[in-house]
Design goal:
Length: 463
Protein backbone atom coordinates (compact mmCIF):
# COMPACT_ATOMS: atom_id res chain seq x y z
CA UNK A 1 0.00 0.00 0.00
CA UNK A 2 2.81 2.40 0.88
CA UNK A 3 5.07 1.59 -2.09
CA UNK A 4 2.22 1.34 -4.63
CA UNK A 5 4.51 -0.09 -7.36
CA UNK A 6 1.79 -0.06 -10.04
CA UNK A 7 0.87 3.59 -9.50
CA UNK A 8 -2.78 2.94 -8.68
CA UNK A 9 -5.16 5.47 -7.18
CA UNK A 10 -4.90 5.56 -3.34
CA UNK A 11 -8.18 3.66 -2.80
CA UNK A 12 -7.24 1.02 -5.36
CA UNK A 13 -3.84 0.59 -3.70
CA UNK A 14 -5.55 0.01 -0.35
CA UNK A 15 -7.91 -2.62 -1.78
CA UNK A 16 -5.02 -4.37 -3.53
CA UNK A 17 -3.03 -4.38 -0.29
CA UNK A 18 -5.88 -6.03 1.64
CA UNK A 19 -6.44 -8.52 -1.22
CA UNK A 20 -2.73 -9.40 -1.23
CA UNK A 21 -2.80 -9.94 2.53
CA UNK A 22 -5.87 -12.19 2.35
CA UNK A 23 -4.61 -14.22 -0.61
CA UNK A 24 -1.21 -14.68 1.03
CA UNK A 25 -2.78 -15.88 4.27
CA UNK A 26 -5.12 -18.22 2.36
CA UNK A 27 -2.30 -19.77 0.32
CA UNK A 28 0.14 -20.14 3.24
CA UNK A 29 -2.61 -21.08 5.73
CA UNK A 30 -1.17 -18.55 8.15
CA UNK A 31 -4.63 -18.40 9.73
CA UNK A 32 -7.83 -20.39 9.34
CA UNK A 33 -9.57 -19.53 6.07
CA UNK A 34 -12.83 -18.34 7.72
CA UNK A 35 -10.79 -16.06 9.98
CA UNK A 36 -9.05 -14.53 6.96
CA UNK A 37 -12.48 -14.02 5.38
CA UNK A 38 -13.42 -11.74 8.29
CA UNK A 39 -10.57 -9.30 7.61
CA UNK A 40 -12.70 -7.03 5.32
CA UNK A 41 -15.05 -6.33 8.25
CA UNK A 42 -12.14 -4.66 10.04
CA UNK A 43 -9.83 -3.25 7.38
CA UNK A 44 -12.28 -2.01 4.76
CA UNK A 45 -14.13 0.41 7.10
CA UNK A 46 -10.93 1.23 9.03
CA UNK A 47 -9.04 2.23 5.87
CA UNK A 48 -11.96 4.17 4.41
CA UNK A 49 -12.48 1.72 1.54
CA UNK A 50 -16.20 1.36 2.22
CA UNK A 51 -18.76 1.68 5.00
CA UNK A 52 -19.33 -1.14 7.47
CA UNK A 53 -22.80 -1.74 6.04
CA UNK A 54 -21.35 -2.35 2.58
CA UNK A 55 -18.62 -4.60 3.93
CA UNK A 56 -21.04 -6.69 6.01
CA UNK A 57 -23.92 -7.09 3.53
CA UNK A 58 -22.34 -9.85 1.37
CA UNK A 59 -22.03 -12.11 4.42
CA UNK A 60 -25.82 -12.46 4.18
CA UNK A 61 -25.86 -13.00 0.42
CA UNK A 62 -28.59 -15.38 -0.75
CA UNK A 63 -25.94 -17.80 -2.01
CA UNK A 64 -24.69 -18.21 1.57
CA UNK A 65 -28.13 -19.41 2.65
CA UNK A 66 -28.43 -21.67 -0.40
CA UNK A 67 -25.32 -23.51 0.70
CA UNK A 68 -26.48 -23.53 4.33
CA UNK A 69 -29.65 -25.30 3.26
CA UNK A 70 -27.61 -27.89 1.37
CA UNK A 71 -25.39 -28.41 4.41
CA UNK A 72 -28.38 -28.98 6.68
CA UNK A 73 -29.97 -31.51 4.31
CA UNK A 74 -26.62 -33.30 4.17
CA UNK A 75 -26.50 -33.45 7.98
CA UNK A 76 -29.88 -35.19 8.08
CA UNK A 77 -28.83 -37.74 5.47
CA UNK A 78 -25.72 -38.52 7.52
CA UNK A 79 -27.54 -38.61 10.85
CA UNK A 80 -30.00 -41.29 9.74
CA UNK A 81 -27.45 -43.30 7.66
CA UNK A 82 -29.43 -42.85 4.46
CA UNK A 83 -26.13 -42.43 2.61
CA UNK A 84 -24.98 -45.90 3.63
CA UNK A 85 -28.15 -47.53 2.37
CA UNK A 86 -27.86 -45.73 -0.97
CA UNK A 87 -24.20 -46.70 -1.37
CA UNK A 88 -24.66 -50.37 -0.46
CA UNK A 89 -27.60 -50.77 -2.83
CA UNK A 90 -25.69 -49.24 -5.72
CA UNK A 91 -22.76 -51.61 -5.11
CA UNK A 92 -25.14 -54.56 -4.78
CA UNK A 93 -26.57 -53.72 -8.21
CA UNK A 94 -23.21 -53.19 -9.95
CA UNK A 95 -21.72 -56.50 -8.76
CA UNK A 96 -18.64 -57.58 -6.81
CA UNK A 97 -15.86 -58.24 -9.32
CA UNK A 98 -12.89 -55.93 -8.82
CA UNK A 99 -13.79 -53.54 -11.65
CA UNK A 100 -17.49 -53.59 -10.88
CA UNK A 101 -16.85 -52.73 -7.22
CA UNK A 102 -14.79 -49.73 -8.32
CA UNK A 103 -17.57 -48.70 -10.70
CA UNK A 104 -20.14 -49.07 -7.92
CA UNK A 105 -18.15 -46.87 -5.56
CA UNK A 106 -17.57 -44.26 -8.27
CA UNK A 107 -21.29 -44.10 -9.05
CA UNK A 108 -22.36 -44.04 -5.39
CA UNK A 109 -19.72 -41.48 -4.41
CA UNK A 110 -20.38 -39.28 -7.43
CA UNK A 111 -24.13 -39.29 -6.84
CA UNK A 112 -23.84 -38.44 -3.15
CA UNK A 113 -21.28 -35.73 -3.86
CA UNK A 114 -23.80 -33.99 -6.12
CA UNK A 115 -25.87 -33.18 -3.04
CA UNK A 116 -23.41 -33.30 -0.13
CA UNK A 117 -19.99 -31.75 0.32
CA UNK A 118 -17.13 -33.75 -1.17
CA UNK A 119 -15.55 -33.98 2.27
CA UNK A 120 -18.68 -35.45 3.88
CA UNK A 121 -19.14 -37.85 0.96
CA UNK A 122 -15.59 -39.17 1.26
CA UNK A 123 -15.92 -39.58 5.03
CA UNK A 124 -19.09 -41.62 4.44
CA UNK A 125 -17.68 -43.84 1.71
CA UNK A 126 -14.21 -44.40 3.16
CA UNK A 127 -15.14 -46.86 5.96
CA UNK A 128 -17.38 -48.84 3.59
CA UNK A 129 -14.53 -49.10 1.10
CA UNK A 130 -12.08 -50.19 3.79
CA UNK A 131 -14.53 -52.89 4.93
CA UNK A 132 -14.79 -54.21 1.37
CA UNK A 133 -10.99 -54.23 0.95
CA UNK A 134 -10.51 -56.02 4.27
CA UNK A 135 -13.01 -58.77 3.41
CA UNK A 136 -11.46 -59.24 -0.01
CA UNK A 137 -7.97 -59.52 1.52
CA UNK A 138 -9.18 -62.09 4.04
CA UNK A 139 -10.84 -64.20 1.34
CA UNK A 140 -8.34 -63.59 -1.45
CA UNK A 141 -7.30 -66.82 -3.16
CA UNK A 142 -4.36 -65.39 -5.09
CA UNK A 143 -6.16 -64.43 -8.27
CA UNK A 144 -5.63 -60.84 -9.37
CA UNK A 145 -3.86 -57.99 -7.62
CA UNK A 146 -5.57 -57.06 -4.37
CA UNK A 147 -3.05 -54.25 -3.74
CA UNK A 148 -4.00 -52.52 -6.98
CA UNK A 149 -7.65 -52.99 -6.08
CA UNK A 150 -7.18 -51.23 -2.72
CA UNK A 151 -5.26 -48.29 -4.23
CA UNK A 152 -7.75 -47.97 -7.06
CA UNK A 153 -10.74 -48.00 -4.72
CA UNK A 154 -9.36 -45.36 -2.34
CA UNK A 155 -8.26 -42.97 -5.08
CA UNK A 156 -11.54 -43.49 -6.95
CA UNK A 157 -13.53 -42.39 -3.89
CA UNK A 158 -11.50 -39.18 -3.56
CA UNK A 159 -11.63 -38.28 -7.23
CA UNK A 160 -15.30 -39.23 -7.70
CA UNK A 161 -16.15 -36.97 -4.74
CA UNK A 162 -14.40 -34.10 -6.49
CA UNK A 163 -15.88 -34.78 -9.93
CA UNK A 164 -19.42 -35.53 -8.73
CA UNK A 165 -19.59 -32.26 -6.84
CA UNK A 166 -19.25 -30.16 -9.99
CA UNK A 167 -22.59 -31.44 -11.33
CA UNK A 168 -24.81 -29.27 -9.07
CA UNK A 169 -24.56 -25.77 -7.63
CA UNK A 170 -24.49 -27.05 -4.06
CA UNK A 171 -22.19 -29.99 -4.79
CA UNK A 172 -18.97 -28.14 -4.00
CA UNK A 173 -18.17 -24.68 -2.58
CA UNK A 174 -16.43 -23.30 -5.74
CA UNK A 175 -19.69 -23.66 -7.68
CA UNK A 176 -21.57 -21.62 -5.10
CA UNK A 177 -18.83 -19.00 -5.02
CA UNK A 178 -18.91 -18.60 -8.80
CA UNK A 179 -22.71 -18.45 -8.99
CA UNK A 180 -22.70 -15.82 -6.26
CA UNK A 181 -20.17 -13.78 -8.22
CA UNK A 182 -22.26 -13.98 -11.41
CA UNK A 183 -25.36 -12.83 -9.56
CA UNK A 184 -23.53 -9.92 -7.99
CA UNK A 185 -21.63 -8.68 -11.05
CA UNK A 186 -23.99 -9.49 -13.93
CA UNK A 187 -27.32 -9.80 -12.08
CA UNK A 188 -27.54 -13.25 -13.67
CA UNK A 189 -29.35 -15.78 -11.50
CA UNK A 190 -28.13 -19.26 -12.33
CA UNK A 191 -31.01 -21.72 -12.05
CA UNK A 192 -30.30 -25.03 -10.33
CA UNK A 193 -31.39 -26.98 -13.42
CA UNK A 194 -29.31 -24.70 -15.68
CA UNK A 195 -26.14 -25.61 -13.82
CA UNK A 196 -27.00 -29.30 -14.06
CA UNK A 197 -27.59 -28.99 -17.81
CA UNK A 198 -24.18 -27.36 -18.17
CA UNK A 199 -22.08 -29.42 -15.80
CA UNK A 200 -23.71 -32.82 -15.28
CA UNK A 201 -22.47 -34.07 -18.68
CA UNK A 202 -18.84 -33.18 -17.99
CA UNK A 203 -19.08 -34.60 -14.44
CA UNK A 204 -20.38 -37.90 -15.83
CA UNK A 205 -17.69 -37.93 -18.51
CA UNK A 206 -14.96 -37.31 -15.95
CA UNK A 207 -16.22 -40.16 -13.76
CA UNK A 208 -16.43 -42.60 -16.67
CA UNK A 209 -12.93 -41.61 -17.72
CA UNK A 210 -11.78 -42.07 -14.12
CA UNK A 211 -13.18 -45.63 -14.13
CA UNK A 212 -11.48 -46.56 -17.41
CA UNK A 213 -8.15 -44.95 -16.46
CA UNK A 214 -7.98 -46.58 -13.04
CA UNK A 215 -9.19 -50.10 -13.89
CA UNK A 216 -7.97 -50.58 -17.46
CA UNK A 217 -4.69 -48.68 -17.40
CA UNK A 218 -3.08 -47.62 -14.12
CA UNK A 219 -4.28 -50.21 -11.59
CA UNK A 220 -5.50 -53.37 -13.29
CA UNK A 221 -6.64 -55.86 -10.66
CA UNK A 222 -7.97 -58.88 -12.57
CA UNK A 223 -10.23 -59.86 -9.63
CA UNK A 224 -13.31 -61.84 -10.62
CA UNK A 225 -16.67 -61.94 -8.81
CA UNK A 226 -16.13 -62.57 -5.08
CA UNK A 227 -18.83 -64.28 -3.02
CA UNK A 228 -17.41 -63.05 0.32
CA UNK A 229 -17.74 -59.42 -0.77
CA UNK A 230 -21.25 -60.05 -2.02
CA UNK A 231 -22.09 -61.61 1.34
CA UNK A 232 -20.67 -58.56 3.16
CA UNK A 233 -22.87 -56.19 1.18
CA UNK A 234 -25.90 -58.43 1.78
CA UNK A 235 -25.12 -58.68 5.51
CA UNK A 236 -24.71 -54.93 5.86
CA UNK A 237 -28.09 -54.36 4.21
CA UNK A 238 -29.74 -57.04 6.36
CA UNK A 239 -28.33 -55.46 9.51
CA UNK A 240 -29.76 -52.12 8.46
CA UNK A 241 -33.14 -53.78 8.02
CA UNK A 242 -36.03 -52.20 6.18
CA UNK A 243 -35.89 -48.48 5.58
CA UNK A 244 -36.90 -46.78 8.82
CA UNK A 245 -39.50 -44.09 9.35
CA UNK A 246 -36.93 -41.31 9.85
CA UNK A 247 -35.04 -42.44 6.75
CA UNK A 248 -38.23 -42.31 4.70
CA UNK A 249 -39.01 -38.81 5.93
CA UNK A 250 -35.50 -37.52 5.22
CA UNK A 251 -35.63 -39.14 1.78
CA UNK A 252 -38.99 -37.51 1.03
CA UNK A 253 -37.72 -34.07 2.05
CA UNK A 254 -34.44 -34.58 0.16
CA UNK A 255 -36.21 -35.80 -2.99
CA UNK A 256 -38.83 -33.05 -2.73
CA UNK A 257 -36.17 -30.36 -2.42
CA UNK A 258 -34.22 -31.73 -5.39
CA UNK A 259 -37.42 -32.01 -7.45
CA UNK A 260 -38.35 -28.39 -6.70
CA UNK A 261 -34.85 -27.26 -7.68
CA UNK A 262 -35.15 -29.08 -10.99
CA UNK A 263 -38.73 -28.02 -11.81
CA UNK A 264 -38.61 -24.50 -10.38
CA UNK A 265 -38.82 -22.76 -13.76
CA UNK A 266 -41.80 -24.85 -14.84
CA UNK A 267 -43.62 -24.05 -11.59
CA UNK A 268 -42.90 -20.33 -11.88
CA UNK A 269 -44.03 -20.26 -15.49
CA UNK A 270 -47.25 -22.16 -14.76
CA UNK A 271 -48.61 -19.71 -12.16
CA UNK A 272 -48.15 -16.19 -10.82
CA UNK A 273 -49.10 -16.69 -7.17
CA UNK A 274 -45.57 -17.46 -5.93
CA UNK A 275 -42.09 -17.20 -7.40
CA UNK A 276 -39.67 -19.84 -6.15
CA UNK A 277 -35.90 -19.50 -6.13
CA UNK A 278 -33.18 -21.99 -5.21
CA UNK A 279 -32.35 -20.40 -1.85
CA UNK A 280 -35.99 -20.37 -0.79
CA UNK A 281 -36.33 -24.05 -1.70
CA UNK A 282 -33.11 -25.02 0.11
CA UNK A 283 -34.12 -23.23 3.30
CA UNK A 284 -37.65 -24.67 3.16
CA UNK A 285 -36.17 -28.18 2.99
CA UNK A 286 -33.78 -27.37 5.83
CA UNK A 287 -36.50 -25.90 8.06
CA UNK A 288 -38.75 -28.91 7.40
CA UNK A 289 -36.08 -31.21 8.87
CA UNK A 290 -36.30 -29.32 12.18
CA UNK A 291 -40.12 -29.50 12.22
CA UNK A 292 -40.89 -33.06 11.08
CA UNK A 293 -40.79 -35.59 13.95
CA UNK A 294 -38.40 -38.50 13.59
CA UNK A 295 -40.95 -40.97 14.96
CA UNK A 296 -44.61 -40.16 15.44
CA UNK A 297 -44.86 -42.95 18.04
CA UNK A 298 -42.05 -41.67 20.24
CA UNK A 299 -43.30 -40.00 23.45
CA UNK A 300 -40.78 -37.14 23.12
CA UNK A 301 -41.49 -36.67 19.41
CA UNK A 302 -37.92 -35.75 18.58
CA UNK A 303 -37.40 -34.15 15.20
CA UNK A 304 -35.35 -35.35 12.24
CA UNK A 305 -32.79 -32.71 13.16
CA UNK A 306 -32.23 -30.87 16.41
CA UNK A 307 -30.25 -27.66 16.61
CA UNK A 308 -27.28 -29.32 18.29
CA UNK A 309 -26.82 -31.39 15.11
CA UNK A 310 -25.66 -28.20 13.37
CA UNK A 311 -22.49 -28.24 15.48
CA UNK A 312 -21.12 -30.54 12.77
CA UNK A 313 -21.88 -28.03 10.02
CA UNK A 314 -19.06 -26.18 8.26
CA UNK A 315 -20.02 -22.71 9.39
CA UNK A 316 -16.62 -21.42 8.34
CA UNK A 317 -17.41 -22.02 4.67
CA UNK A 318 -20.37 -19.66 4.94
CA UNK A 319 -18.12 -16.91 6.33
CA UNK A 320 -15.65 -17.64 3.57
CA UNK A 321 -18.26 -16.95 0.91
CA UNK A 322 -19.19 -13.64 2.53
CA UNK A 323 -15.58 -12.48 2.79
CA UNK A 324 -14.87 -13.51 -0.79
CA UNK A 325 -17.87 -11.64 -2.18
CA UNK A 326 -16.94 -8.52 -0.20
CA UNK A 327 -13.37 -8.66 -1.50
CA UNK A 328 -14.52 -9.16 -5.09
CA UNK A 329 -16.96 -6.23 -4.78
CA UNK A 330 -14.26 -3.81 -3.70
CA UNK A 331 -11.74 -5.06 -6.27
CA UNK A 332 -14.39 -4.41 -8.89
CA UNK A 333 -15.35 -0.95 -7.57
CA UNK A 334 -11.68 0.08 -7.42
CA UNK A 335 -11.29 -0.77 -11.12
CA UNK A 336 -8.56 -3.32 -10.47
CA UNK A 337 -10.37 -6.23 -12.08
CA UNK A 338 -11.04 -4.33 -15.28
CA UNK A 339 -7.42 -3.23 -15.53
CA UNK A 340 -6.12 -6.77 -14.96
CA UNK A 341 -8.58 -8.17 -17.49
CA UNK A 342 -7.49 -5.66 -20.12
CA UNK A 343 -3.83 -6.43 -19.42
CA UNK A 344 -4.22 -10.21 -19.77
CA UNK A 345 -6.56 -9.90 -22.75
CA UNK A 346 -4.00 -7.75 -24.57
CA UNK A 347 -1.58 -10.69 -24.48
CA UNK A 348 -4.05 -13.53 -24.96
CA UNK A 349 -5.06 -12.74 -28.52
CA UNK A 350 -8.37 -13.91 -29.92
CA UNK A 351 -7.77 -17.69 -29.84
CA UNK A 352 -10.60 -18.76 -27.55
CA UNK A 353 -9.61 -22.43 -27.51
CA UNK A 354 -6.08 -21.60 -26.35
CA UNK A 355 -7.40 -19.18 -23.75
CA UNK A 356 -9.81 -21.81 -22.35
CA UNK A 357 -7.01 -24.38 -22.26
CA UNK A 358 -4.69 -22.00 -20.40
CA UNK A 359 -7.47 -21.09 -17.95
CA UNK A 360 -8.29 -24.75 -17.25
CA UNK A 361 -4.76 -26.05 -16.75
CA UNK A 362 -3.82 -23.04 -14.62
CA UNK A 363 -6.91 -23.54 -12.45
CA UNK A 364 -6.33 -27.28 -11.98
CA UNK A 365 -2.68 -27.02 -10.99
CA UNK A 366 -3.10 -23.94 -8.78
CA UNK A 367 -5.82 -25.79 -6.86
CA UNK A 368 -3.20 -28.37 -5.84
CA UNK A 369 -1.69 -25.82 -3.44
CA UNK A 370 -4.52 -23.35 -2.91
CA UNK A 371 -8.00 -23.78 -1.47
CA UNK A 372 -10.41 -24.22 -4.38
CA UNK A 373 -12.94 -21.86 -2.78
CA UNK A 374 -10.37 -19.13 -2.28
CA UNK A 375 -9.13 -19.75 -5.80
CA UNK A 376 -12.54 -19.15 -7.37
CA UNK A 377 -13.09 -16.11 -5.18
CA UNK A 378 -9.80 -14.64 -6.42
CA UNK A 379 -9.95 -15.66 -10.09
CA UNK A 380 -13.66 -15.25 -10.92
CA UNK A 381 -13.35 -11.45 -11.19
CA UNK A 382 -10.16 -11.86 -13.24
CA UNK A 383 -11.81 -14.22 -15.73
CA UNK A 384 -14.81 -11.89 -15.96
CA UNK A 385 -12.49 -8.97 -16.65
CA UNK A 386 -10.79 -10.88 -19.47
CA UNK A 387 -14.16 -11.92 -20.92
CA UNK A 388 -15.45 -8.35 -20.80
CA UNK A 389 -12.30 -7.06 -22.47
CA UNK A 390 -12.64 -9.64 -25.25
CA UNK A 391 -16.42 -9.06 -25.43
CA UNK A 392 -17.28 -12.75 -24.88
CA UNK A 393 -19.71 -14.43 -22.46
CA UNK A 394 -18.02 -14.68 -19.02
CA UNK A 395 -19.23 -18.30 -18.74
CA UNK A 396 -16.79 -19.32 -21.50
CA UNK A 397 -13.86 -18.73 -19.13
CA UNK A 398 -15.61 -18.80 -15.77
CA UNK A 399 -17.01 -22.33 -16.10
CA UNK A 400 -13.67 -24.01 -17.00
CA UNK A 401 -11.96 -22.03 -14.25
CA UNK A 402 -14.55 -23.18 -11.70
CA UNK A 403 -14.58 -26.80 -12.85
CA UNK A 404 -10.79 -26.94 -12.87
CA UNK A 405 -10.70 -25.76 -9.26
CA UNK A 406 -12.47 -28.99 -8.21
CA UNK A 407 -10.21 -31.39 -10.11
CA UNK A 408 -6.96 -31.30 -8.09
CA UNK A 409 -5.77 -34.92 -7.93
CA UNK A 410 -2.00 -34.96 -7.34
CA UNK A 411 -1.41 -33.89 -3.75
CA UNK A 412 -3.06 -34.81 -0.41
CA UNK A 413 -3.55 -31.13 0.38
CA UNK A 414 -5.22 -30.50 -2.99
CA UNK A 415 -8.71 -31.29 -1.66
CA UNK A 416 -10.03 -32.71 1.63
CA UNK A 417 -11.04 -36.02 -0.06
CA UNK A 418 -7.43 -36.49 -1.21
CA UNK A 419 -6.20 -35.97 2.35
CA UNK A 420 -8.79 -38.37 3.84
CA UNK A 421 -7.87 -41.33 1.63
CA UNK A 422 -4.13 -40.60 1.87
CA UNK A 423 -4.41 -40.74 5.66
CA UNK A 424 -5.40 -44.43 5.37
CA UNK A 425 -1.72 -45.36 5.16
CA UNK A 426 -2.41 -47.63 2.18
CA UNK A 427 -1.32 -45.05 -0.38
CA UNK A 428 2.17 -43.91 -1.19
CA UNK A 429 2.66 -40.32 -2.27
CA UNK A 430 3.99 -41.63 -5.58
CA UNK A 431 0.67 -43.42 -6.19
CA UNK A 432 -1.25 -40.18 -5.82
CA UNK A 433 1.28 -38.09 -7.76
CA UNK A 434 1.34 -40.47 -10.72
CA UNK A 435 -2.40 -41.03 -10.84
CA UNK A 436 -3.18 -37.39 -10.10
CA UNK A 437 -0.95 -36.09 -12.88
CA UNK A 438 -2.70 -38.36 -15.39
CA UNK A 439 -6.16 -37.33 -14.15
CA UNK A 440 -5.19 -33.64 -14.13
CA UNK A 441 -4.12 -33.82 -17.77
CA UNK A 442 -7.20 -35.80 -18.78
CA UNK A 443 -9.46 -33.33 -16.92
CA UNK A 444 -7.70 -30.41 -18.63
CA UNK A 445 -8.33 -31.86 -22.10
CA UNK A 446 -11.94 -32.87 -21.41
CA UNK A 447 -12.93 -29.58 -19.75
CA UNK A 448 -11.24 -27.55 -22.49
CA UNK A 449 -12.99 -29.40 -25.32
CA UNK A 450 -16.30 -29.42 -23.44
CA UNK A 451 -16.09 -25.69 -22.72
CA UNK A 452 -15.08 -24.75 -26.27
CA UNK A 453 -17.56 -26.88 -28.21
CA UNK A 454 -20.55 -27.43 -25.92
CA UNK A 455 -20.83 -24.52 -23.49
CA UNK A 456 -21.77 -22.02 -26.26
CA UNK A 457 -24.56 -24.35 -27.38
CA UNK A 458 -25.80 -25.04 -23.85
CA UNK A 459 -25.59 -21.37 -22.83
CA UNK A 460 -27.72 -20.45 -25.83
CA UNK A 461 -30.24 -23.12 -24.80
CA UNK A 462 -30.62 -22.10 -21.16
CA UNK A 463 -30.77 -18.39 -21.94
Amino acid sequence: MLVNPFGFEPKAAKVLAVATLMITWWITEAAAMPVVALIPLVLFPLMGICKMEDAAAPYANSVVFLFMGGFIIGLAIEKWFLHKRIALNIIRVTGTSGNRIVLGFILATGFLSMWLSNTATTIMMYPIAMSVVTVMEENHKGEGKIGNMAICLLLSIAYASNFGGIATIIGTPPNVAFVGFLEKKYQYTFQFIDWMLLCLPIAALLMLTLYWTMTRWLFRNGIAHDTATAALIKTELQQMGKISGPEKRVLIIFAGTALLWITRDLINAAQTLVKLDDTMIAMAGAIALFLVPSDSQAPERKHLLDWHDTQKMSWGILLLFGGGITLANQLEKAGLIQQLGNFIASYSGSNLLLLIFATTILSIFISEVMSNVAQVIVFAPVMAGIADALKIDPLYLGIPMTLGASCASMLPMGTPPNAIVFASGRLKLNDMLKTGLVMNLIATILITLFSYYLIPVLVHTIR
